[in-house]
User: Which sequence fits this backbone?
């Protein structure tokens, strides 16, 4: 996100209006998501009532929407710009809603089918990292076997997160969807028992270690090694509770720690019958890493919190725990984690009587499944070493990720590691270098720093009563209703570049304007740049109702042009196709007194998506900024006589992103269209008549086409033009269509340069 700048409207009659804007490369919520999930896209779909489409969008990056909708720490919400206005959008609750919507209706997830055959890959551990990696590899045709030591799949999702936060039917449903891809999950199969790690590595082309960090960290205080009864590790407690085998840990229970596992251990102990539970944390409440909602719920359930306190000695009698001696702490300077360092307060010791102690202060890799000579490097923190960019370990063909590498982290971070590992494994299987190339150029858009929506707090999910929740493992959060989910999704400000096109149709409350650099102030030669800028509807009505509104941004003069559509009364036949396709309800066909039906546009409702333009059979619908006259004006500028080379024109779809990946020296020859399918044969012939040596049309692949049929229409138009050119004696190959521009910049540059060299090598009449 760039620095704040000022956009000044320079109206002739009104006083200049200044607005604070900043450049966004993408929506802030998406930037802060470890998976890069297109949050704005699926929230917009929910707002439009397209719940299954929203779920499909989520699953592009996240195979566990129902799980993450419940247990994700939702960093996306931390960056939601709405929080500066009233409250952040309830993004996690919306993700959960669409997952529950599918489950309640018994709908089978719409995953891409796995391809049969392929290389054999082993995944050790069926947690979120392991299952994500397995799913990605299965879709690419790999034969994936997942080895899980526990009797149930899911790793810590199954045995570390209690059912009151993550119901088992949700977990089972989403794991079974991964099984359906052909992934073989072998439970009760601990590596090192019936099968060794070396045997697994020998039988598979690649191995992904995703065992998590399931060995609890000890307190290392006097008396810890002498306890025979009363000292309970949190991993065993939560696992036994998840499997329905746990008993009451004790009457008076003390839990040590400040993370979610500590809070869950305390709440589980309460549900198992403990009469009193106290949680000790060595820092303040504000420093506590556990999610605030869980802490608040724990307090409501009667758990006592003692902050700035830590155990220093266990009180034992005949091997049985009778209490914990603790000391008060104060916060000093920052430690290596950046948090205040807890320091003991001399003489502040106090005794906490208890018969059960649950240390939940951390976890580390359990490497006991590895035999001697395994060839893997283990770090000083007792974690698996991997190369940062590739996740490959010190042993070729063996990769690692998730908590086994990072230490305790979030579910969504583990999913991200699974994706990265799958990508590296696929490159390894193909014999390619493991480090993938860089990403393409970012898209930029100006966005207002603060949009003025109606103030409205977020919708809160209904919850079980305190009496119901503390006595059972039933899920506490009950989720949003359909009406609540739609209402919550409509609170989204839609900030960030408008790259999703029709996904936001029907709910976006912004008007789209094109900022066009004034060529008169751009120096000699042809030069134009334009950016998409979205304004609140009311602002557009007041200061940008007309065309070519002057403005100044970053020291340069621009013109603002609305992208709303207009109807040519002469060409319109009143067929109604535009009305049928407009999701904004901005066009209606009405009966005129002269006996004709004609389409009319309500400009306040129009968002300039261009769908109506694309379907009009007579060309009666035209779009501001992309009108035929404006496009031809740009064409004439590009085709001004050049001394060194013949003028070759590049025509590209505005949605394709060609402007970002085209070689810099060729961008001056580019004219962007609303859609290449709107370029009629007559338009192309006119371009040839204006002096173009050739025309290269750059269209989108059909599955990525904004309108779904742009290139097909362009091909039909080009076929008709070629027949006409032959009659006129003009070589038809002076015009070419490149159907897909999905390739990287190198491939695109090659196609462009090849076409130009071919034309320049012949005499053009």
Assistant:
């Amino acid at each position: 996100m760039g620095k704040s700048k000022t956009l000044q409207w320079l109206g002739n009659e009104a006083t200049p209006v200044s607005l604070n804007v900043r450049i966004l490369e993408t929506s802030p919520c998406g930037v802060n998501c470890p998976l890069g999930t297109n949050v704005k896209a699926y929230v917009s779909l929910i707002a439009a009532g397209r719940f299954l489409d929203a779920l499909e969008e989520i699953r592009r990056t996240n195979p566990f929407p129902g799980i993450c909708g419940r247990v994700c720490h939702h960093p996306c919400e931390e960056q939601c710009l709405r929080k500066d206005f009233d409250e952040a959008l309830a993004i996690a609750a919306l993700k959960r809603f669409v997952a529950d919507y599918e489950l309640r209706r018994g709908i089978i997830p719409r995953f891409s089918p796995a391809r049969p055959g392929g290389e054999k890959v082993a995944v050790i551990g069926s947690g979120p990292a392991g299952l994500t990696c397995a799913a990605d590899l299965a879709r690419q045709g790999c034969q994936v076997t997942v080895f899980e030591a526990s009797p149930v799949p899911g790793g810590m999702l199954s045995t570390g997160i209690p059912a009151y936060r993550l119901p088992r039917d949700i977990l089972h449903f989403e794991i079974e969807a991964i099984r359906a891809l052909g992934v073989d999950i072998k439970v009760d199969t601990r590596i090192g028992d019936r099968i060794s790690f070396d045997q697994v590595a020998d039988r598979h082309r690649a191995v992904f270690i995703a065992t998590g960090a399931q060995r609890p960290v000890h307190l290392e205080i006097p008396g810890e090694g002498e306890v025979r009864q009363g000292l309970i590790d949190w991993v065993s407690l939560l696992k036994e509770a998840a499997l329905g085998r746990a008993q009451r840990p004790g009457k008076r229970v003390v839990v040590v720690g400040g993370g979610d596992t500590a809070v869950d251990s305390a709440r589980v102990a309460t549900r198992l019958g403990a009469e009193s539970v106290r949680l000790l944390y060595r820092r303040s409440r504000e420093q506590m890493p556990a999610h605030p909602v869980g802490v608040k719920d724990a307090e409501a359930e009667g758990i006592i919190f003692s902050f700035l306190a830590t155990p220093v000695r266990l009180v034992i009698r005949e091997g049985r725990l009778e209490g914990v001696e603790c000391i008060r702490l104060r916060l000093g300077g920052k430690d290596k984690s950046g948090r205040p360092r807890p320091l003991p307060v001399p003489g502040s010791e106090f005794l906490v009587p208890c018969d059960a102690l649950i240390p939940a202060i951390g976890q580390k890799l359990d490497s006991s499944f590895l035999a001697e000579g395994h060839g893997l490097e283990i770090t000083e923190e007792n974690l698996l070493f991997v190369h940062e960019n590739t996740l490959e370990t010190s042993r070729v063909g063996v990769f690692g990720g998730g908590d086994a590498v990072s230490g305790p982290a979030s579910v969504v971070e583990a999913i991200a590691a699974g994706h990265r590992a799958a990508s590296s494994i696929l490159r390894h299987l193909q014999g390619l270098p493991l480090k993938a190339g860089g990403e393409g150029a970012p898209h930029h858009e100006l966005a207002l720093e603060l949009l003025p929506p109606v103030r409205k707090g977020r919708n809160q999910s209904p919850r079980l009563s305190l009496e119901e929740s503390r006595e059972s493992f039933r899920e506490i959060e009950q989720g949003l209703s359909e009406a609540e989910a739609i209402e919550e999704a409509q609170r989204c400000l839609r900030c960030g570049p408008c790259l999703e096109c029709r996904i936001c149709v029907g709910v976006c409350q912004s008007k789209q304007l094109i900022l066009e650099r004034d060529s008169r102030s751009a120096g000699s030669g042809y030069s134009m740049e334009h950016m998409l800028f979205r304004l609140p509807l009311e602002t557009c009505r007041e200061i940008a109702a007309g065309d070519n509104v002057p403005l100044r941004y970053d020291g340069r003069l621009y013109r603002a042009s609305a992208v709303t559509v207009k109807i040519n009364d002469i060409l319109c036949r009143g067929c109604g196709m535009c009305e049928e396709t407009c999701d904004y309800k901005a066009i209606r066909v009405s009966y005129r007194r002269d006996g004709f039906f004609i389409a009319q546009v309500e400009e306040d409702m129009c968002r300039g998506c261009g769908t109506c333009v694309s379907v009009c059979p007579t060309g009666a619908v035209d779009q501001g900024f992309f009108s035929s006259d404006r496009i031809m004006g740009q064409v004439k500028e590009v085709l001004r006589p050049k001394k060194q080379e013949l003028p070759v024109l590049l025509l590209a779809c505005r949605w394709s992103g060609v402007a970002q990946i085209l070689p810099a020296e060729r961008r001056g020859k580019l004219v962007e269209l609303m859609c290449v399918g709107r370029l009629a044969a007559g338009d192309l012939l006119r371009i040839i008549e204006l002096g173009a040596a050739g025309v290269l049309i750059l269209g989108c692949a059909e599955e990525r086409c904004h309108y779904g049929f742009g290139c097909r229409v362009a091909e039909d138009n080009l076929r008709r033009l070629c027949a006409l050119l032959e009659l006129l004696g003009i070589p038809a190959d002076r015009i070419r269509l490149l159907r897909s521009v999905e390739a990287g910049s190198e491939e695109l540059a090659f196609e462009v340069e090849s076409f130009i060299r071919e034309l320049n090598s012949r005499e053009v009449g």
Q: What stands out?
A: DSSP finds 25 helices and 30 strands in the chain. The longest strand covers residues 320-334.
